[in-house]
Structures are given as C-alpha cells and as structure tokens.
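Suppose a colleague, Dr. K., hands you the sequence of a protein chain of 336 amino acids and asks what its three-dimensional shape might be. Before reaching for any lab equipment, you can write down a predicted structure in token form. Begin with the sequence itself:
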Amino acid sequence: MTVVGPFGDSVRDPALEAELQAGLTAVEAGLIEATKSDVPFITETAQHLVRAGGKRFRPLLLLLAARFGDPEAPGVVPAAVVVELTHLATLYHDDIMDEAEVRRGVPSANARWSNSVAVLTGDFLFSRASSIVADLGPEAVRIQAEAFERLVTGQIQETAGPRPGEDPIAHHLEVIAGKTGSLIAVAGRMGAMMSGAPEPVVHTLAQYGERIGVAFQLADDVLDIASDGRESGKTPGTDLREGVPTLPVLRLRQLARDGGSPADKELCALLDGDLTDDARHAEALERLRAHPALELARRDALSFAERARRTLDPLPDVPARRALADLCDVVADRTA
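The predicted structure, expressed as tokens, is then:
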C-alpha cells in the first residue's frame, strides 16, 4: 500500500501514485507562479499560506477526476490551481471573520499583518484565479462564478443563522454544502470536464465532490473539539470560542431540547456564556470532548462519507475510482 498526499491517502497503484505526485508538483509550481506580484510585499502575503503547505485536497481530487478522461489535457493543472487559489482566498477572509491567530501551523495573515492586508490579499487571490479560469473557456468561468455565489451565500447563511422554526442541524448542513461542498464539487467537475470525460461522469464526480466535501467539513467540526491542533493546523476550539456553530455543539443542543439531562442543559448554558474567557473555554472544550454529542457528530461525518462512496458506483472500476473511495476512509481516520 503506497501513500500520496498529506492526508495519507492510500493509493493502491504505484503508477497512479507517481502520476498524482507529478501532477501535484505541477500544481504547486502553478500556485507559486500565480501568487507572484511586481510588488514584493504582495508576493509575500499572497504566498504566505501557499508556502505554509496544506492538504491540497481539492487539487488532488481534481487530478483523480481527470483520470476518467485524458489526465494530460492542458486545462487540468490550471483548473487545479484555480480551485486551490479560490480556497486559499476564502481562508484569508475566514480568518478575519473568526479572528483566528493560527492557520496551517503558522500565524494567520490577519495576525501577522492586519485585517486590511488579509482581506485585500484574499481579493488578490480571487482576481488571479479569475484570470486563469478565463483562459479555460466560458463554461469554466460560469462554473467558477456559480461556485463563488454558493460560497458567499453559505457564509451569509452562517452569519444570519437559521430562520425561525428551521432545524439548526439542517441549516448547518446547508451552510456546509455552500461554503465547503460547492468548491470541492467544482474540483470533481472541472477535473473530469477538462479531461474530456463523458457528461454523466462529470456529473457523478461533481456530486461525489460535494458529498465528500461535506463529510470532510463535518470531520473538521469534530476536530475543532477533539483535536490538539496538529491535525487541523488551527487552535483547538477556535470555532467554539467564536460562537461558530459546529455539529457537536448542535447535537448537544438537540439532545438538551429533546429531554436531555441537567448536565446537558448546564453545558449548553456554559456554551452560551463568554467563551473568550480562557478558563470557561477550556472547561467547555473538556466537557464536550467527553460528551456523547461528539460521537454523534462523528457518526454523521461517517454517514456522509459513505454516501460519497456510494456515489462512485456508476464509475468504471479503475485505480482512480478506488483512490476516491479510499478518501472516504480518510474521514474515519481523521475523526477517530
């Protein structure tokens, strides 16, 4: 069993592994080139998170999707660069909204410089992604624009919160599908489309991308509570401190509403308090780590991963399909 990618994604075919590694190397070079500017300071800020590393999950998925057509087609690597640049841009903006101090194990751009520098750097990355995608054709531009709309819509929905009477968990899943699933769906769709794969395959891989994207975000929800920070590259409990709803917290609140124990209600009251206080934050994190709500959230993540796996059923049984199925197992590993 060989391994590719920083997830430790299992790839059973040595030839496929070598080709994916070559593709990721080309994507990395493309990211460095795309983040250069005539202004040295912009180059420094734009390459801050590129050079910090990261999972490169979206480019990896796109390269795997391209295996269902011609993986050497000229639009494949640029499309992967576009998807990752767009993702990186959202990270700069997310860290401002979350007031995060750490991203990918390094100081966030807003912490190192300022909110203004971070937001403008994110805008710079969006502009570079738009420039590259324009060379890929009008259909690629439309796909990118629709995904960007869904990203923004998801963020606004998260900021606004659920409507009166709306199930908070259903709302959370809709937010994740927009904020996270939409761009990963683009990775599956663009990889297949740029490689010339048949339209039914393009549709299947887009659907798979959205479902595995939701699964990975739910896994991140679990990691925000359960991780020590090394896996996520973020300070544990960042979302918890900022009052961002995550699935373990929503599951806890659901249990408390549906006849939960006094301890459940007490923990909800703690979460409703001031979690910028370090002692209260540490107590809330410790109690959530021991609460059954965390296990329920783990099961939800695994359920979405299994749905993603079943989406692959119509595809031919080739090494790329098996690698995509193995990505579903990574969700289990991350939430363990």
